[in-house]
Amino acid sequence: MVSAVLWCLPFVLSFIGSLAQPQTTANTINLGSSMTAGTNSSWRSPSGDFAFGFYRLVNGQFLVGIWFDNIPGRTLVWSANRDDPARAGSTINFTLDGRLGLTHSNGTGYLIYNGTFGASSALMQDDGNFVVKTNSSKVIWQSFDSPTNTILLGQVLVMGQKLYSNANGTIDYSTGQYMLELQMDGNVVMSAYKFADPGYWYTATKDNKNVSLIFNQSTAFMYVVNQTSIAYPMTRQVPTPIGDYYHRAMINDHGTLQQFVHRKENGSGWTVVWEPENIKAEPCIPFNICGVYGFCTSIDNTTINCTCLPGYSPRDPSIPSKGCYPATAIDFCAPNSSASNFSLEEIENADFPNGDFADMARITPVDVEACGKAIMDDCFAVAGVLVESVCYKKRTPLLNARRSFPSTSNIVAFIKIPKANNNPPIQDKDDDSPSWIALLAGLLLCSTMTLLFATITICHHPLAQPYISQKQLPVPKPVDINLKAFSFQELLQATNGLRNKLGRGAFGTVYSGVLTLAAEEVEIAVKKLEKGQNSLESLAQ
Question: What pLDDT, on the 0 to 100 scale, is given for residue 533?
């Protein structure tokens, strides 16, 4: 018995000693830690549900981000450098002085946390929040305070915080055109902020104090709360039990806030459990969803289809939301332009809805014919719509064109099209076919090379050498002659018999005259030497 106790004693002492040491988890990130892009390393949460590190993009670049790490596709939920992706070889550094930052492969840096409050460790938590702590475990920085396009279960958005959509789904994670904002007046608004859109969805919680958007960790419901109660309920139903699912909510690149669930075991993908009712009923509601001069349609009110308005072509066929451009240059109010240069096309059950003060003019009451004529007669109007008996003239650029039932039912839209461009071919601007400028440049180059080759061949031909070798001396201009001998008779004739006396010098008298040299008259001065002065001096004068 005694021997058994003695045998166990070292293990007991070892266990007691371990209790006396400061406790750190295996997932704690210590000062001096780092990782390099392209090495497939990451800092994982204790459960392994989330990871922090370099998230590889489809183009081979990397975002410093947080993602779900236990599901196919590893859905990204946060990033620090969405508008400045890193390349392979870049590093994430948790420095010895407590700063967390990204160092690009070219040496430039970006601070995620500046180390102001004396960090001692960091941790990727199981709720998807990456935190930096002091040695007393106080959180001094967390990713939940700077969300990108996503909120997670248990996360709270407060007044002044915003979510920004991606530019293009999972292809381009840079900042897109849509924003969800908890305004300082208490209203929660979604808008196409790049176009000064006042908002296409809002909670109408204005004038509430201390408003927050909560993603409740216990119920997985989202709602807007004020100081005392729920001001705006959002989620109505989610699958249970809550713990069997991953949860997230995101504003997508189509401008819709959606709440998703994904079963943890044998899950087949993300399922939408909530989205705003007005957008769910009409997906083309988000402002300018198909870009400038784009046209949004939704036949089934489930999916959207982006095309171009008549007379316009897509900027990028692979990304319809980038909008369209005129197939030919259009100057509606040029001095030589008139209504006869354009045709007017009607689009049934369509609208170009703008803000209250964005329309050029409103005319009432009118019918379809009168509205169309008013648009054609106004060179500044590029389009218009007839809603009941009100005609709204539209200016360029055309935004937010859509056909969406029932909101655009019985609305007639009009658009001006240059007659030479009624049916423009839809082609990519980056088409490989040569333009007329490139063709002209090629012909000019070929002609120049042909002429140069012919000239060199002729110059080196034996029959041409006798003619080339006969060099013709240039004929000097009379005024360029500096020294020339004249007879006394020529000078006497030029000075009219030495009658025009100019003055007298040291050795003789000076007379003026005119010489005719190669059909050009040149004024001269002639000194008649009286004391044997050198004739060259006399001529020069």
Answer: 44
Q: Which two tokens stand for residue 7?
A: 């045998």
260 in Cβ contact with 249 (< 8 Å): yes
Sequence length of the chain is: 541
Q: What is the rounded CA–CA span in Å between residue 257 and residue 149?
A: 9
Residues 370, 391 contacting (CB under 8 angstroms): yes
Question: Is 528 flagged in the annotation as binding?
Answer: yes
Residue 485 lies in a domain: yes
Spatial strand order in the sheet of 361-363: 342-348, 412-418, 383-387, 390-394, 361-363
Asked whether the beta carbons of 35 and 42 are under 8 A apart, the reply is yes
Tell me, what's the pLDDT at 453?
A: 63
- 412 φ, ψ to 5°? -110, 125
CATH code, domain carrying 121: 2.90.10.10
Last residue of a domain, one of 421, 440, 455: 421
Alpha-carbon distance of 138 to 121, in angstroms, equals 10
pTM score above 0.90: no
Q: How far apart are CA 411 and CA 256, in angstroms?
A: 25
pLDDT tens-digit map of 414-449: 999 988 654 444 343 344 444 445 555 666 666 677
Q: Which of 129, 145, 161 is the last residue of a domain?
A: 145
Which residue segment(s) compose the domain that 53 sits in? 29-145
Co-location of 227 and 312 in the same domain: no
| Residue 24 belongs to some domain of the structure | no
Residues contacting residue 170 through CB under 8 Å, at least 6 positions apart: 58, 76
Exposed (0-12), middle (13-18) or buried (19+): which is 71, by Cβ within 10 Å?
Answer: middle
Structure tokens at 178: 């849509």
Q: Is residue 259 a contact partner of residue 274, using CB atoms and an 8 Å limit?
A: yes
Q: Decide if 342 contacts 426 (C-beta within 8 A).
A: no
268 and 219 within one domain: yes
Pairing between β-strand 222-225 and β-strand 230-233 as defined by DSSP bridges: antiparallel
User: What secondary structure, in 3-state letters, does 141-209 show?
Assistant: EEHHHCCCCEEECCCEEECCCEEEEEEECCCEEEEEEEEEEECCCCCEEEECHHHCCCCCEECCCCCCC
Select, from the ranges 84-93, 291-300, 475-484, the one with the highest average predicted confidence (pLDDT): 84-93
| Tally of domains within the chain | 4
CA distance 291 to 176: 12
